[in-house]
Amino acid sequence: MRNEVLLAVNYTAQDRFLAGLVRHVAGLFFQTYCERNHVRGESASSMMDALEAKSLAEFIQTLLGCSATVAYVVAVIAHVGLVGAWFGLPAGLFIWAERKISGRIQDRLGPTRTGGRFGWLQSLADGAKLIQKEDLVPKDADGVMFRLAPYIVVVASFAAYMALPFSDNWVAVGLDVGLFLTLAILSLEVLGVILAGYSSGSKWALFGAIRESAQMVSYEIPMAICALCPIVTAGTLNLNEVQLLQSGGGEPLSFLRWNILHPFNFFAFFVYFTCATASCKRAPFDLAEAESELVAGFLTEYSGMRWSFFFLAEYASMFLVSGLAAILFLGGFDDGLGLIGMVKASTSSGVVHYLANCVGFVVFLMKASVLVCVQIWVRWTLPRLRIDQVMTTCLKYLIPISCFLFAGTVAWPFVLLKMTQHSNLLGGPAGARLVKPAAKSKKLSRVDAVDNVRPWVAAKENSR
Amino acid sequence: MTAETALFYLFAFLTCGGAVAVALTQNIVRMAFSLVLTLGSVAVLFLLLGADFVGAAQLLVYVGGTLVLLVFGVMLTATGPFTRIKSAPADVILSGLIGVVFLFIVSRTVTSVNWDKVKTDVSIGTHAPAVEPAFNPTQQGNTTRPLGLSFLSVRSDRDLKTGDQAAAAKASGIVAKPSAGYLLPFEIVSVHLLVVLVGAAYLARTKRRAAV
Q1: Could you tell me which chain B residue has the CA closest to the CA of A458?
Q2: Which range (A230-239, B62-71, B171-180) has the least confidence?
Q3: How many CB atoms lie within 10 A of CB B186?
Q4: CA-to-CA distance for A383 and A222, rounded, in angstroms?
Q5: What would the pLDDT profile of B74-88 be if each residue is shown by its tens digit?
Q6: What is the number of other CB atoms lying within 10 angstroms of the CB of residue B169?
Q7: What is the DSSP string of A257-298?
């Protein structure tokens, strides 16, 4: 009886196409799963093999022949350095861009006096000024928590970069739970803001913190649901696989595979981006800072470096959510014409693959930067919402919309399969681009994987 | 000592230190922060064990969700700024006793397991021993796919076989009985949570004023 109930879960009613899809999806998942665990067994010796290593630690180990622990520690330092630089550099760049764009939009003078063309030294000058400022702690504040709060915010938005792939497989920690972990770490940022507001011993700061936590806790829900829509389409939480599935893999015009062209993901993208803007506390959702109402909200009592930590974290998380949007909806490192995929498919040379990845890195940065610029554009053109409007937008509109989009994304392949015999409009299985390399390596062909899955599907069909 | 062991000791120390601080601090917000430290370190311990999904869930559910609500609740219910909590001596003795008994139970359980045997027996999906001799992060943490497959009643460690095992299974012609899936129980639990949520919203809603 119990088995029959479970069978009913797997195959609702007598629908053959559903059984076919389950078989297909299970075969696909199993395929990539085996492939990942298999490839690792090989021992590499030459430079070519080292370039094709799955991780930096492995690369160092094969190239220098040192122990796993040493290679691991070196790789960790390299990753932290790279991501750390990434944490600081775009912040400086985007603060400059914010000034210039806001200057254009609102007829202000952007930075002009501080050296360099277009005032590009302004961010550096600001940095020098902020470092020199006195590190103040108000008399009424809870000293320890007050000093600690900026670090929590910084660490949260910095650590979220951990699972973000900057190009194909260019990721500090390539996890199967990539998106889940990223969203979990991002949600910790609010803790620092609450602590900052509470420990300041000022009513403005406390108001700001309460608004901020109410806003962040509510906007997390539609943001996560909309981020799940492309995940459902791709069938994996691994961010690298999500962008790989949208890339050409040798086909031209690969932008047709981007999730944004999926009818439900298209709307999910805009809902996600709205919620992401809100979760970065950006206008029109900057209720927590609201200069005209709360002085500066939770930032009221901060100055100098601790104040600038909050800003660094804000720009870092702006870039992070934009990067996530680029990966989930806009194909990540894929250039849209399929050139990178074609180059990669035409040769197995490690050096060419590496160079193609570098191009992919630039493509990814451009996509994410354009989205950050959109956030800046929105900030300087839309007036701030009231707190009740912010909450209404989220709870009454965005959450129901995102639930509908999620349900639609789940139902879409079934409808398509019923009508066109394909699980997507372009035909061909969604995961073909993931499976191809495995078929070449002869480790385990796709036929084997399907054969492995077939017996239990047959067993279930017989048992009915 | 490998990097993994060193990291384990660091985060085990933070877990215990945070827990002790929760019990000893009197400032209620610092207490909540120590709890963040403890729960966050537990999440890192999960990640070190290669249980990525559980680690991420720990971060999202406990550290991210529960603690924000806790801090929120504390801020809204406290009567003065920086409220302190002082417990009566009887409370300290009683809770100390409970703590000691619990510690005894846990340590007995841990020491009564033959860990060397577990090391050789347990395998995660890959049909390889769970404990790797070297710290190899890329090998670990591929637990999400097996977890998701087992929801669909495909146990990767039992139902799916690779290479020679698959050939042998095919040759023998014996089809294994499918495993049970966990999707239905999981969904039932989720619906329970939804019921709780609706109930809480019902209790907390503003009562309509009676028409005057």
Answers
A1: B175
A2: B171-180
A3: 11
A4: 22
A5: 666 665 655 666 778
A6: 17
A7: GSGGGSHHHHHHHHHHHHHHHHHTT-TTS-TTT-HHHHTTGG
The pLDDT, as a whole number, for residue A272 is: 93
A225 near B CB under 8 A = no
Indicate the range of A44-53, A377-386, B6-15, B96-105 predicted with least confidence.
A44-53
Decide if A367 contacts A336 (C-beta within 8 A). Answer: no
Is A6 in contact with B183 (Cβ distance < 8 A)? yes
- The answer on pLDDT for A394 being more than 60 is yes
Q: Among A119-123, A164-168, B24-28, B175-179, which is the least confidently predicted range?
A: B175-179
Would you call B59 and A185 a contact, using CB atoms and an 8 Å cutoff? yes
C-alpha A125/C-alpha A120 separation (Å) is 10
- Cβ contact A453:A23 at 8 Å: yes
Rounded to a whole number of angstroms, the distance between the first and last alpha carbons of chain B is 76
A417-432: burial string, b at 16+ Cβ within 10 Å, e else: beeeeebbeeeebbbe
Q: Select from A155, A452, A454, A457 the residue whose CB has the most chain B CBs within 10 Å, as the one to mutate to test that interface.
A: A452
The complex's ipTM works out to 0.73
- Tens of pLDDT, residue by residue over A168-200, are 777 777 777 888 888 888 888 888 888 888 888
Question: What is the C-alpha to C-alpha distance for residues A315 and A160, in angstroms, rounded to an integer?
Answer: 13
Q: How far apart are CA A192 and CA A181, in angstroms?
A: 18
Q: How confident is the model at residue B177 (pLDDT cuts 50, 70, 90)?
A: low
Q: Which residues of A touch B152 (CB under 8 A)?
A: 10, 22, 26
**Amino acid letter, residue B3:** A
Phi, psi of B22 (to 5 degrees): -60, -40
Q: Could you tell me if A123 and A95 are in contact, meaning their C-beta atoms sit under 8 angstroms apart?
A: yes
Q: How far apart are CA A43 and CA A51, in angstroms?
A: 13
**Tokens standing for A43?**
């021992």
A40 contact B CB<8A: yes
Surface of A (287-306) touching B: CB under 8 A: none
Nearest-by-Cβ selection for A188 from B63, B145, B176: B63
Q: Give the Cβ contact number of residue A63 at 10 Å.
A: 17
The backbone torsions φ and ψ at residue A246, rounded to the nearest 5 degrees and listed phi first, read: -90, -10
Kindly state whether A445 is in contact with chain B, defined as any CB-CB distance less than 8 angstroms.
Answer: no
Q: Which residues make beta-bridge pairs with B84?
A: B27
* Phi, psi angle pair for A175, to nearest 5°: -110, 150
Residue B132 Cα, gap to closest chain A Cα (Å)? 12
**How many angstroms separate the CA atoms of A134 and A411, rounded?**
58
Compare all CA atoms of chain B with the CA of A146 and give the residue at the minimum distance. B30
pLDDT, tens digit, 9 for 90 and up, residues A17-28: 333 334 444 444
Euclidean distance between CA atoms A441 and A451, whole angstroms: 18
* Helices first, then strands: H and E counts in chain A: 20, 0
What value, to the nearest 5°, has the Cα angle with vertex B71 and ends B70 and B73? 65
Chain B contact set for A5 (CB, 8 A):
184
Could B52 and A175 be called an inter-chain contact, meaning their C-beta atoms sit closer than 8 Å?
A: yes
Distance CA A71, CA B68 (A): 38
Angle between the A304-329 and A263-279 helix axes, to the nearest 10 degrees?
180
Positive or negative, the CA dihedral A78, A84, A87, A88 is negative
Chain B residues inside the 8 Å CB shell of A187: 59-60, 64-65, 68
